[in-house]
Amino acid sequence: MNPFSYSRVADPGEAVHTLAGKPQGKFLGGGTNLIDLMKMGVETPNELVDINRLPLTQIEELPDKGVRIGALARNSDVAEHELIKTRYPVLSLALLSGASPQLRNMATVGGNLLQRTRCYYFYDPAFPACNKRKPGSGCGALDGYNRIHAILGQSDQCIATHPSDMCVALAALDAVVRVRGPKGEREISFGNFHRLPGNTPERDTNLAPDELIVSVDLPAISFAARSHYLKVRDRASYAFALVSVAAALDLDSNKVKAARVALGGVAHKPWRAHKVETEINGKSADENTFRAAAEAELAAAKGYKYNSFKIELAKRAIVCALSTVAAMA
Amino acid sequence: MSATLIGQRLTRVDGRLKVMGQATYAAEFARPKLAYGVLVQSTIANGRVTKIDISTAKSAPGVIAILTRENAPQFKPYPDDLTKKGAPGEDRVPLQDAEIHYAGQHLGIVVAESFEQAVHATSLVRVTYQPQPPVVMLDDERVQKNAIWPERFIGRESLQVKRGDINAALATAAHKIDVVYSTPVENHNPIETYSTTAEWEAPDRLLIHEATRGIKQLQRIIANVFGLPRENVHIICPFIGGAFGSKGFQWSHTVLAAAAAKLVQRPVKLTFTRPQMFDSAGQRARTEQRFSIGADKNGKLMALRHATTTHCSPVSEYTEPCGNMSRMLYSCPNVEVSHRLVRLNLTTPCPMRAPGEAPGVFALESALDELANETGLDPVEFRLRNYADIDEYENRPWSSKKLRECYERGAKKFDWSKRTRKAGSLRGADGSQIGFGMATAIYPAGQQKAGATAILNKDGTVTVRSATHEIGTGTYTAMSQFAADTLGIPIEKIRFELGDSQFPEAPNNGGSWLTSSVAPAVMGACRELKKKVVDLGESWPNDPAQLANLLARSGQEQIQAEFISEPNKEEREKFSFFSYGAVFVEVHVDPLGQVRVKRVILILPNTTWRCTRTHRNLTSISSTS
Asked: How many domains, chain A?
């Protein structure tokens, strides 16, 4: 770990001011990923600004019946909150399927948005090639051991996946990320928050280095109460998703009126499955409909030596998750 | 006190210490002026080091010294018997040459005032390499042609066995299969990582606190490497936070910590990080096991070929002995067991939980199921038809074998006969495929030479000592039980001490032989103590208060007795010693390929459990679904 300076701030304005114009600095939330990366020598900030005491832990109802989750709300608290459990069970389930209780107690919502890929070639600096860690150095995963890597939206620069479960649910829920920078606040729609790798895999998100996440706002979605998160992984606990699906359905008798579907473990960002949503809209909520939609979503998928199984797995997981939601009372 | 303690539900004698955080593990001994060591490791897997530049690192804050090949002393080699004949552990002492054999190999140690400073300085060490392409896959042609056919497993059991005419038997078999099973590399990852704190008490006296389950062996290794009399190396390890096969054998970190301590003239602590548990001191090798098995039309095994390919590293020829149980687990006239070893640029393999038996019996039992299916026989019936009444490899009777009754009890408890036999015929409500399976469990019942001392103290308590180990399985409690039972005094009056190289000889903790080896020594020492008391013209009182009086009357400070227990050689040559069991499981595989084990029933022969609490904990898995 590189030496760094540490300071603690008391309000969001001070936080943003402290790191303004210091691209080498980082905000420290729960630290469950950043500290790991610093230990591995992947992240080498020269300054840490501890934001844990900022008053950003609220989980509260908004006037439009949506819910605002403060950036510093701990994953455990969000998962167990009554508003979340009743209105957005998909989010609660996604959170509870991630990490371990100890990590969830520490990890913050803002930090979860910013966690970095677990691609082995990114995480271990002993590997010389990683465009995300060292732009222009190449991609070790392309011809390496790429079992956990992306099948959608990747580029020849990077085939890493986004590791978060929570973000998959947030993508399905059309969340809005509120951020604060030196010039004030702005809102970023969830679909625009994370990026596909393209030619700039070193950039995971569209958050500017001097911006601080202050909250994640969930819009009111009446049918989000009928939702599910399915996570497929190598172990039943404490493992990242090979493929995951966040799904919510609005049904009129057995017809799909509206759907929200997002995939995890398949792309550089939480993958909103727009094709599935369009494909099943107005159709009967059955396995054939879901399978056809899954086929459409994955039509453009591309597998590598060790991860091609994910294409069929993703299709089956979509069918399974949607069937589960459809069967809900 | 006449009632026996063996088989009673005792609480662990060290339980309170553990839950209070007062059981001291290797990394937790506070030593005066302690400095911290962190390993410099290779980032390539094959080649040579051309240069180690420490110019930036050595001036980093807190750095005391950096030990590399440049300034390393000349170490003497490890003891011969620990490096030859496929013995586990590395045969190469560190820092004596520039060769790189695997990624993560230790190239030096940075010593600093704090752990964090040492970690940072280590990241500033610049190593330049002359790399060679590494070979890391079993099927790589470059190593295939140089494969080794190891003769024996650690100089003991034969790894190349032939009995009868396998080819002729296969040619005429009514049913046969040819299958390959592979198992991956497995890493030991106990909660406690490796840790060594080395300090030189005098220029020729070394004190080491290390997480080791081979105290006496480590003492010998370090004495050899530093050219010291064995008694000048003092190893202490009262508790081990799990091992699973790690924390034995010779690895370079102990040598590096001790050499670094010498260099800086202070105690040096070297504790592995979690990632180092994967590359710095052992792992179970990958295996590929090919079976050609044939049976006659009645399902009697006629031919069994078990050919294992596995790997060692360039600095050890330890072999994962997958085929050893295939020699004798079933009755079969024509058997061929072979082991082929290729050298890969991977961390040196070593024993891990049931070395050989775990991957080997898994594969053998899977293959038998496939053959049973081929013959149309029930897997239990198939095993019964091939039941080995004697050890056909050694051609001698079993010490005992109650496997038949394990099958019967297990099948009954599991409702085995009521299951649907046809493979793939059962589906769960969620579309899962449901499978029922069973397998034989077997493990050698080993025993080693061990010694113990029993001391009657002034207060009427008895201290018993042996240089054995506590890896979390309950040695303190079990040995206290054996001592209390032998002496007929309450267990509270026994103090059992272990984990000190100055105590009487005990074997490495492994092979499931700790209790069978050390308990006879403990009981023997206690019997000897009783005899000594009787020799004083006294009878042995069961009341501890009278024991104190007795000692006072004798005018002695304490009475001490020793005993060394050795396996009964005659019995060991006359019989084959193995433990058996039968396992029945129900497994579901859902449409997403997720495997869930719903039910496990493990049947072991009716036996005396030394502690029913342990037994209950072990057997509670059978009711979990």
From this structure: 2
Third-level CATH fold of B15-22+447-573: Aldehyde Oxidoreductase; domain 4 (3.30.365)
Query: B611-614 contacts: CB < 8 A, separation 24 or more?
Result: B611/B7, B611/B8, B611/B9, B611/B10, B611/B474, B611/B477, B611/B478, B611/B481, B612/B7, B612/B8, B612/B9, B613/B9, B613/B10, B613/B11, B614/B474
Residue B535: predicted pLDDT: 87
Q: What is the mean pLDDT of residues A5-17?
A: 96
- Which chain A residue shows the shortest CA-CA distance from B60? A3
Using the predicted structure, report yes or no on whether residue A178 has a pLDDT greater than 70. yes
Q: Is residue A20 part of a domain?
A: yes
Q: Does A299 touch chain B (CB under 8 A)?
A: no
Q: Give chain B's length.
A: 625
Residue A132 lies in a domain: no
**DSSP string for residues in B421-461:** -STT--B-TTS-EEEEEEEEEEEE-----EEEEEEE-TTS-
pLDDT of residue B298: 97
**What pLDDT is stored for residue B620 in this prediction?**
44
Task: Output the six-digit token pair for A64.
Answer: 């439009």
CA distances B234 to A91, A273, B214, B507, Å, are 56, 64, 13, 16
Check which CATH number belongs to the domain holding A270 and give it. Answer: 3.30.390.50
At B608 the pLDDT is 59
Residue B103 to residue A126, Cβ atoms within 8 A? yes
Closest Cβ–Cβ partner in A3, A126, A236 for B120: A3
Query: Bridge partners of B435?
Result: B587
Alpha carbon distance B578, B157 (integer Å)? 14
- The boundaries of the domain holding residue A20 are 5-52
Residue A294: per-residue pLDDT = 98
What is the reported pLDDT for B44?
A: 97
What digits encode the pLDDT tens for the residues A208-223?
999 999 999 999 999 9
Name the strand (E) or helix (H) holding B127.
strand B126-131
Task: Return the closest-CA partner of residue B462 out of B544, B524, B523.
Answer: B544
C-alpha–C-alpha distance, residues B5 and B496, integer Å:
15
> What contacts B374, CB < 8 A, 6 or more positions away?
B175, B176, B177, B295
How confident is the model over A303-309, as a mean pLDDT? 98
- Chain B nearest C-alpha distance from A126 (Å): 5
Residues lower than pLDDT 70 in chain B: 1-3, 607-625
What does the H/E/C string look like for B284-336?
A: ECCEEEEEEEEECCCCCEEEEEEEEEEEECCCCCCCCCCCHHHHCCECCCEEE
Contacts of B137 in chain A (CB under 8 A): none
- What would be the CATH architecture of the domain defined by B26-133+205-278? Alpha-Beta Complex (3.90)
Mode of pairing for the β-strands spanning B47-53 and B126-131: antiparallel
Q: Which residues of B touch A126 (CB under 8 A)?
A: 43, 103
Residue A97 lies in a domain: no
The interaxial angle of helices B215-226 and B252-264, nearest 10 deg, is: 50
State the Cα–Cα distance between residues B14 and B25, nearest whole angstrom.
13
Is B598's Cβ below 8 Å from some Cβ in A? no
d(Cα B477, Cα A196) in Å, to the nearest integer? 58
Please give the full DSSP string across B598-624, using - where no structure is assigned: EEEEEE--S---S-HHHHHHHHGGGG-
